[in-house]
Specification:
Shape: globular
Largest sheet: none
Number of strands: 0
Distance between the termini: 29 Å
Structural class: mainly alpha
């Protein structure tokens, strides 16, 4: 076992130990305002620095606070990268590559809505690693500008192929599916090229499970919206792990949501979707990702996946914290079911 991986696993477990707990989420969700959340988070070892940056500006509205929290997550990633063995650096770029994808998809949404809106900039060190022009994306006003900003990224060729012959913007659903497929394809190729044995098996299994779950989720949603359609393959991710291609085809052709769930019950994911309501699909996916990542982090053999699992867990924590902020902002009832699992 590599001493470097042991040190990496020790580091990420220590970082994970500073996570928000269930009681923290519940306490924050009961606060009267975002300002109260701001004051509370100032004392937290992970998210306190994000608030400290806001102290310098005196501005801490909801959107600015969320942006600062995301910036803190990226800064934590950059610090962690220093502990990653050199041969694993390419794989550990996955948060940057995923952030590029999120930026492109957000820009497409913004352009389709006809909004020109600047967003919070990424940390300088993060931008230096990015292949998209992170400064140009929030400023572009048409599809040509988006193409220019993404020219050096892995997504450029797909974006070119998506350009409608008549001009304008591509269909968002089709674009999202294709671009996410580019991301997963890139990651699979990287794993096959750089890793062998147990490391490759673990990494590919993790990514494969995520894709299977996302495809099932997409089919269920599409069946609710378009119950008469029977071929969604063109907008699903063309990768198969524990699901067979024939099973996915059968789900697409099934009679409505109940028909899909009956077929899912015959797959290794039966327990994940047992008794699921369509409104809970995202939560089921997050629960599966949490359990898989936590198991690998706490019980798995130290490897590069120790860092990948930790980053998955931290992203889930950040998103739940943003949910809490939204709940307080809009005085909504907080659904703490996932927090009870995440905050163990």
């Amino acid at each position: 076992m590599s001493a470097g991986y042991e040190a990496l696993a020790t580091k990420v477990k220590a970082m994970y130990g500073k996570r928000l707990r269930y009681a923290d989420y519940v306490r924050l969700a009961r606060m009267a305002s975002v300002s109260e959340i701001y004051a509370d988070l100032r004392q937290h070892p992970v998210w306190g620095p994000a608030v400290a940056r806001l102290d310098e500006t005196g501005k801490f509205g909801r959107a600015r606070l969320e942006a600062s929290l995301r910036e803190q997550g990226r800064e934590e990633y950059m610090r962690l990268a220093a502990f990653v063995p050199r041969e694993d650096q390419a794989l550990m770029d996955f948060p940057i590559i995923r952030s590029e994808l999120d930026g492109i998809l957000f820009t497409l949404t913004r352009l389709q809505a006809g909004r020109i809106k600047e967003v919070e900039p990424l940390p300088t060190r993060f931008i230096l690693h990015s292949k998209t022009d992170a400064k140009a994306l929030p400023l572009c006003t048409d599809y040509d500008g988006l193409l220019d900003a993404a020219r050096n990224s892995i997504y450029y060729d797909a974006l070119v192929s998506l350009r409608p012959a008549e001009g304008g913007l591509p269909n968002y659903t089709v674009a999202e599916s294709m671009l996410v497929s580019v991301y997963y394809s890139h990651m699979f190729k990287l794993m096959a090229k750089r890793y062998t044995g147990d490391a490759r098996k673990t990494l590919q299994s993790d990514l494969g499970v995520q894709i299977d779950l996302l495809n099932i989720t997409h089919i269920l949603r599409l069946k609710r919206l378009f119950p008469q359609e029977d071929n969604f393959l063109t907008i699903l991710f063309p990768f198969y792990h524990k699901l067979k291609r024939e099973q996915v085809r059968a789900m697409c052709a099934a009679d409505g949501v109940d028909g899909v769930l009956a077929l899912v019950a015959e797959t290794p994911y039966a327990r994940v979707f047992q008794g699921v309501e369509l409104s809970d699909l995202d939560q089921r996916y997050r629960e599966m990702l949490f359990r898989m990542s936590r198991r690998h982090l706490m019980l798995g053999k130290p490897s590069i996946y120790s860092a990948v699992a930790f980053l998955n867990l931290r992203e889930l924590e950040l998103k739940e914290l943003v949910t809490v902020i939204e709940t307080v902002k809009y005085q909504a009832e907080y659904d703490d079911r996932f927090a009870a699992i995440l905050g163990q």
